[in-house]
Structure formats: C-alpha cells, structure tokens
Amino acid sequence: MMTTDNTTSPQFRVSPAETESLLPRIVTTSWDDGDACDLKLAELLHARKLPATFYIPITGHHGARSLGRNEMRALKSEGFEIGGHGFSHLILPHCTKEMMVREVITSKQELEDILGSEVRMFAYPCGRYSSLAIRYVRKAGFAGARTTEMFAQGFNYDPYRMPTTIHVFPHSKSDYIRNTARAVNIGKAWRYLTELWQAKNWVDLAKLLFDSVIEEGGVFHLYGHSWEIDELELWDDLAEVLDYVSSREDVLYLTNGSILAYSTARPSFDLEAHCALEG
Fold first, then answer.
1. For a tag on the chain, would you pick the N or C end, based on fewer CB atoms within 10 A?
2. What percent of the chain clears pLDDT 90, i.e. is strictly above it?
C-alpha cells in the first residue's frame, strides 16, 4: 500500500502577518538523472545534514545505468526526497501524447511502486517543457515541477515552473546572460548578473547569491548532475559550496517538495503541521 513520504524537515511556522521583507532564509538542493554517482553525492550531503531532492528516471539517461530499486529506497530511508524525471529521460516537448503518458504518468506510478510512497515532484529532462508537458505533469498528480531557470530566490512562481538559483557547472558568462532572460524575476536576476563580473567562477557566484539570501531572505536552490560533477572533477568545488551554505543557525534546510508546499500557500502556511503530516 502506498504511504505518505516520510521525508523530514525542520519545523517552521509562518505568521499570517509575514511580508516579503520578512522572508525566511531557506536552502534546498536538487540533483538530476539518477546516476550512480548520486550515492557519492548523497554522502557529501548527509555529512553536512543537507536535504536534497533526487530526480530519477526509470531507465537512466542517455543509456547510462540508473539507480536501482534498493538504491532509491536507501536514499529515501536517509531522508532524501525522490522525484520523477521521466521514464527514459526523453525531452518532453519532442514527445507525442502517447510518449508523454509513459514519460510522465507511467514513470510516476513506477517510482511510487518502488518507493511505496507518494512522489510529489517532477523535474523536466534538460529543463525543457511546454504547455502540453505541464498539462501531463498535472494530470499525473505531481504537485509541482522544477525547471533549470537560474537566479531565482523568491517564492512567487508557478509550481509547475519551479526555478533554481545556480547550477553546479562552470558556465560561461554568455551562458548566464542567456539564462537570465528566462529568470522569474528579471530585475533581480539582472542585478545578480551585474555582480557576476566580480565572481571568478561559479563557486564565487554561488557564495554571492547565498549571501544575498542571508541578507534579504528567500531561497537558495543549488542543482546539478552528479555524473557531470564527476566528469568535470568538480567535487572539491561542490564541497566548498556545501560547507559554505550548511550549518547556519538562521537558515532552514528543506527539500523541493516542502518548499513548494510552503511557497504555494504562504503567508498562512503552517510548515510545522505539514512536516507532521509527512512524518
């Protein structure tokens, strides 16, 4: 029988009088593709008590081996959230309606059978989506879906277009400029883009963006792919960023699903009650 996911989150109660200037400071991380290197990534996160949402396709991406049933269950038992990432990592806007059923609806059912619990979140393969893709994600029963749009730090977004803050990848400055055009808050994103010229690399930029969350409140959302981190030998860089954002007394550390539940219901959302339901 399917049960409610028991992913745990810190307790936090939002006051009805909360305003945008009194936003909490939240850190979340998410990781795509279900590569075997996710297990190494999970060790780094677990050592720092950082939550994560792992978005895992059923059959792997580009022919690579996907995490097996026992490995998925092990991640879940460690408190990590598991999200959908398609059946075989096909680009959804390229799919027919029949293919969309398998990639979105069937993949959710398969994951829930494996985990024995509800799967609430979905990540669009390669960040590509369309109005039809969103329709099928909603039809499947997902509560929300994550994109690859960066430079976001607020809560006001379509739950089926959840943005991120920064990608674990040495992007060029032109890459960041192109991504800024898709940002949820163009003005704020452009402000950070101007600060980019002060950053030597993605690590420095991540720290700048996190510092702005500490100063102003909001969400710092770090995302990436463990196989990419491994291929580019970014493990030390990643560890530096994880050390920088972890163990802060004034920061909440949540999964994508818990943040979505908060962001779609604020300012009256009671996160403490939500966590009790999850447990």
1. N
2. 69
